[in-house]
Amino acid sequence: MANRTVKDAQSVRGTNPQYLVEKIVRSRIYDSKFWKEECFALTAELLVDKAMELKYIGGVFGGNIKPTPFLCLVLKMLQIQPEKDIIVEFIRQEDFKYVRALGAFYMRLVGTSIDSYKYLEPLYNDYRKIRRQNRQGLYEAIYMDEFIDELLHEERVCDVILPRIQKRQVLEELNELDPRVSALDDDLDDVESEEEEEEKPVQKSPTPEHYLTSAQKREDDKSRRQNSPTRHKRVRSRSPHKRERSPRRRSRERTEREDRDRRRHRSRERDYHGKEKDRDYRHRSPGHEKRSHEKKSSHRSKHSRRERESKESFDIAESNALRAKLGLAPLRR
After folding, report:
1. Cβ neighbour number for residue 39 with a 10 Å cutoff
2. What's the predicted TM-score (pTM) here?
3. Residue 88, burial from CB neighbour count under 10 angstroms (0-12, 13-18, 19+)
4. H-type alpha helices, 121-206
5. What CA–CA distance (Å, rounded) separates 264 from 135?
6. Packing angle between helix 69-80 and helix 44-52, nearest 10 degrees?
7. Confidence band (pLDDT; 50, 70, 90) for 181?
8. 92, β-bridge pairs
9. Does the first or last residue of the chain, that is N or C, have fewer Cβ atoms within 10 Å of its Cβ?
10. Each residue of 267-326: pLDDT tens digit?
11. From CA 87, how far away is CA 214, in angstroms rounded?
12. Paired residues of 295 in beta bridges
């Protein structure tokens, strides 16, 4: 029948290779349309063409548990059991990422612990995105190295229970597997070498003088003078006797000091009188202002009365002189 394993197939882990997929999932695959139309009478050569047409990976999806084409091809590979060289070529080629994912999944199912670590760990350096269909039928994006990590450490991937494998640490202790060398070690070595080169002191090349600013030129000239061997330092005498100043200089200093004191005294007197006037103006009472106003008004009235009296006397004198000429009696004041 079309669902039977080939006659010359070898048992995997003591059982039929197709039995690595659960019975309920296997029966759903046998009833699927993709299995009946696309996987019928497939050989190892034709399987490559079907694998190249894959667009996503996944297990089963939907309420009635429909299998994905990826899972159908995995079961077909378990049925026909292709040679190991074909599977290794699936894993090592880099053009078709879903073919690589199919070969890695099959190697994890049928391969030994050593083969799983040997052929799958190099795929940690593949960072390409792949699409995976979840149980709800929706697509999600994951990375190839993430999928490989799930194959090596998870118990169930794509709705298939993976066979148990020994831990890598045990195989390394038994000298059956070499310690894993990460591709990041070379990058870390390059980073450390760059840091060591940066830590080395870098000698600055002398800057041309026409690129220097005025401040930098002054600093450069100062450093040259200080480092110059022919630089003569000014030597001052340390004798306890100070030089005496000339009498002309003393008189000039005295006159300048006196002028300075005089100007200071005048400015102080001016400030003092100005402050006194401000204080008198601020503290002047309303009664004082009224009295000063009355004094001013009385003085004006007296002055005006005197002017009127002098004017009247002048008019009387003129009129008496005129009356005397006319022979009339003079006026009385």
Report:
1. 23
2. 0.57
3. middle
4. 144-153, 168-173, 184-199
5. 100
6. 170
7. confident
8. none
9. N
10. 777 776 666 666 655 555 555 555 666 666 666 666 667 777 776 676 777 777 877 777
11. 75
12. none
Tokens 């640490």 -> residue: 169
Crossing angle (nearest 10°) for helices 113-120 and 84-92: 30
Give residue for tokens 């309920």: 24
For residue 20, the Cα-to-chain-centroid distance in whole angstroms is: 52
14 and 3 in contact (C-beta within 8 Å)?
no
Radius of gyration for the chain, computed over Cα atoms and rounded to the nearest angstrom: 59
Strands (E), the chain: 57-58, 60-61, 66-67, 129-133, 139-143, 156-157, 160-161
SS3 321: helix
8 A C-beta contact, residue 47 and residue 54: no
- Orientation of helix 97-110 relative to helix 69-80, angle to 10°: 50
Stated as kind and residue range, the H or E segment containing 87 is: helix 84-92
Residue 19, number of CB atoms within 10 A of its CB: 15
Q: What are the tens digits of pLDDT across the range 36-47?
A: 998 888 888 889
Between the alpha carbon of residue 273 and those of residues 198, 282, 321, the distances in Å are 75, 14, 58
The two tokens of residue 275 are: 């402050």
Sign of the dihedral through C-alpha 18, 43, 32, 68: positive
Q: Which helix (H) or strand (E) holds 112?
A: none
- Tell me the CA distances in angstroms from 152 to 90, 99, 161, one per residue in order: 18, 18, 12
In residues, how long is the chain? 333
Tally of CB atoms within 10 A around 2: 11
**264 neighbors 256 (Cβ within 8 angstroms):** no
